[in-house]
Amino acid sequence: MLTTFSAPVDQPLRGRESEMARIHDVLEHGRAGGRAVVVIEGRPGSGKTRLMRECVTLADRLGYVTASSSRAGRAARPARETRHRLQAPGHREVPARHHGPVRPVLVLIDEFQGLTGWAERTAALPRGLRHDHVVWVAARRTGMGPDPTCVLLSDPTSRCERIALGPLAPSAALELAADTLGALPSPLLLRLVEQFQGHPRLIVELLAGMREERSIVVDGAEATLLTNRLPDRLRARVRRTLSQYSSECRQLLCVAAVLGTEVEYEALATMLRTAPSALLPVMEEACATGVLRHDGARTVFHNELVRQIIDDSVPAALKRALYREAALLRAVRQPPVDEPVRVPPPHPAAETPGHHPPPLSVRQHQLLRLVGEGLTNQQMARRLGLSPHTVNYHLRKLFKCFGVHSRIDLLRAAAGAHRALSLADSREL
Q: Measured between alpha carbons, how far is 47 from 348 in angstroms, rounded to an integer?
């Protein structure tokens, strides 16, 4: 029977010393009577909420009162009651009921892009910032629509800090792994952790899940890897994170994961029944998840293990269909105009010595490629600027050339001809 393993909630914050130094400086500024805004940005799982929780702990030591509806504020808020209250942005502040010195106030906004009534609140936010002894700390997930933090950072009378959270350094990732396990990871386990490239949440979910499934044994001061199977807890975390993005983004990532490590834009656009230019916004969103990244002239999966998780989430039967569709698309890609392709006849045995089949025209190659995209005659006619009658005429010629009677058979025959021609050319060489 599996037991649920949870990492210690009081484990130290690792790898964010410079960020905490900046936050400490801002809190001192607010305690001295100033106003400030701190915006913490990062991809999913980069540690925004964890950093905010540490910010609340530090603010409490410095004498702050915390006003928050965020997870970080609720988790780290002191147990004692306080009479200091601050309403949400866009409302008038309630005066504190005390006669002593004014205490500084820390206001937390977790997942800043999710605020409701955004148009009304943004108009009132600058007014809320015109109060001394107030520090606003807002967390924002990058890539989730327009950036609203410019409203927070637009007040010239307030000090503004924007903190972008990147991956942990290797030494910090090792410390996080040791904190999660309560022991140092063995060299083999450490190599597995390093494949997540300093992503805090994935490292914690990996190790906690492997302990739940008993893929790791902790013996004294070292944790040893028994099997490198990725735990269900990690898979669920990846699916849960991707569910917060658009269905178009999830579809793109699933198809791209099946096709391989590198994103093939032409094949991806065809299989998604769209134009390559229409992929721009959804590719931007996919990169914002942290799953994809631009590697010079290529777009690749940032982490092979995450790609494997996404690929495994696609049903096997559907995956086979995607493989076949991608293979057909690669086979019927349009060649250069000045390089016609020789197509063997459908029955090689009937070919007479010295006979060579006529090459396909550029127009026929265009139609063959559009058939692979699944377009109708009318759609192909609009795409090529032809009449449906002309498209139908060329298709009949293609059917006759390959000796087939359906579009599926046409694509299969074209793929087989492409393979046969490649084999013949290799033999000639």
A: 63
**CB-CB contact of 241 with 44 (8 Å):** yes
Specify which residues 206 forms β-bridges with: none
Count of alpha carbons within 13 angstroms of residue 262, beta-carbon side: 6
* 3 state DSSP class of 264: coil
- Spatial strand order of the sheet with 134-141 comes to 65-68, 105-109, 134-141, 35-42, 159-164
Both tokens assigned to 422: 């490649």
Q: Residue 161: beta bridge partners?
A: 38
The C-alpha atoms of residue 233 and residue 213 are separated, in whole angstroms, by: 9
Contact 415, 327 (CB under 8 A): yes
The encoded tokens of residue 249 equal 């983004």
CA 252 to chain centre: 11
Using CA of residue 110, residue 239, residue 300, residue 200, what is the dihedral sign? positive
What amino acid is encoded at 379 in this protein? Q
The token pair that represents 85 in the structure block: 């209250």
CB of 324 closer than 8 Å to CB of 266: no
Region 253-278: what's the mean pLDDT? Answer: 89
Measure the CA–CA gap between 209 and 233, rounded to whole angstroms.
5
Quote the distance between the C-alpha of residue 117 and its chain's center. Answer: 27
Give the H or E element holding residue 294.
Answer: strand 292-295
The one-character DSSP state at 4 is: -
Note the pLDDT tens digit of each residue in 368-384.
888 877 778 888 888 88
Mean pLDDT of 231-259: 93
